Structure formats: structure tokens, C-alpha cells
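Re-running Ribosomal RNA small subunit methyltransferase A to confirm reproducibility after the cluster update. Everything else is unchanged from the original entry.
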Amino acid sequence: MKSRKFKTKKKFGQHILISEGVIKNIADQIHITPEDIIVEIGVGTGQLTEELLKRNPKILYGIEIDPETYPIIEEKFASYQNFILIKKDFFEVNLRQLSEGEKIKIVGNLPYNVASLILVNMPFYLKIINLCVFMLQKEVAEKLTAKPETKSYTFLTVFLNTYFEIHYLMSVPARFFRPPPKVTSAVVKMIPKKDVPQFDVKGYKNFVSKLFHERRKMLRSKIDEKLLEKAGIEPEKRVEQLQISDFINLYTEYLKGKHKSKN
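Result of re-run:
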């Protein structure tokens, strides 16, 4: 009864997933074992949480920002000793502290209003992530799986795909949520790449972000042509034409030039 009385809040971007089929499908994608540490971002009223706990992970940390949901969650999962509710905003949580030195699996129906910001945090935790399965706005999911020379190919595409293999799993219609959002949703799976560049994640993030400002301009108007030449990139190209490997090469050459200028 409590979950029926709960009112979703626009400020938290809350849309409760009510499709049992989709919930089970998401849980299937995580391949939960008794050794797994799972982190769920945005517990809500616990529909997905319940399915995850049925599969008996070692521990499930549920991160939830909305105080109104706390009594609902605590009553619902009181019998589960492997569930810990973290009553915080995701951005106040240090995932390394939850990992206990182990790899973690991250899952969540991400609030639309902060989904991109949450995603951008994932490469910073790469070393402790086993995999991520996220429900997102379809438009964001399409950005994550976009190809060069398309409108959806953005900073988010390049930054995330530098560190993760990203798979578009399924689209989820608005009718599967309460209240129905105005957009279609989608589920993606992110698996850390084995060979990733070892340079500073924050520096690379800022570098790629700046390149995507005024994306229609030729690269030679943003980057020294000698640097482009060393990275094997034609100066007349635009940022949206570059492959992920081009960004990695370009930032590597940029760092080399920066290092030389200091010496």
C-alpha cells in the first residue's frame, strides 16, 4: 500500500519501472553470483531491487536520494541481511569504499535529469567496475552507441567508448513506467575495455569536451596543425569525423608536446 501512495517527484526525475519482464531482463544481464557486490543507483520503491535480491548477491548497496522512499525500502527489504540502503545523492558516494577492494557491478534506472553526469563518472571508477547495466533516455543510449559523422556522435560517445564496450540491449516504451515519461527509454550494458589508455582521465575528458565545442569548425582552427600531423589526422577534418583511436592518438601527442615544453 505504501508504494501505491508514493508520489514520484519531477525534481528527482523519478519514473518507476513497472514491467516485470523488463525488470527480469535487466537482472539477467548482470549475471549475479553469490560473490557479487552490486550497486544500484536510484532504488525508488524497490521494484528492480527486489529482483536483484532474489538472485542472492553477496551484498547489494542501494543508493537513494529521496527521503520519502526510505521507510518504504526499509520495510520492504527488512528481511534481507545482504541489502544496505545508502541515503545519499549518488554524487556524494565514493564507490571505491563500497567495493571492498573487489570489482563491483553497477545497475540502475537512472534519473533522466542527471543520467549523463552519472555516466561521465564511470571511467573514473574503471578499475573497480565489472560491468554496468543502465536504463536511460533512448536519446542518450543512442549517443553512447553512435558512429562518427552522425548527429548523435558527441563528447559523451567518445569519452565513454574510450573506456567501455557499450551494447544497446533494448528499447523500453513509456507505458512500462509510472508515471509514463514523455520519451522512450533504453537499456545499455557497459563492459570495461581491457586495453585502455593510461593517461589522466580528467585531462582527457576536458580535452575531448573542448574539441566538441563548435563541432562544425575544422580541427585546424582548434588544434596546432603540427599536432594533428603527428597524430595522423587531416587538418580539414571536423571533430565528428574522428574515430575513438584518433582522439586517443591526438591526446597522446598533446601530452608529449606538453611534456617537452616543460623540459
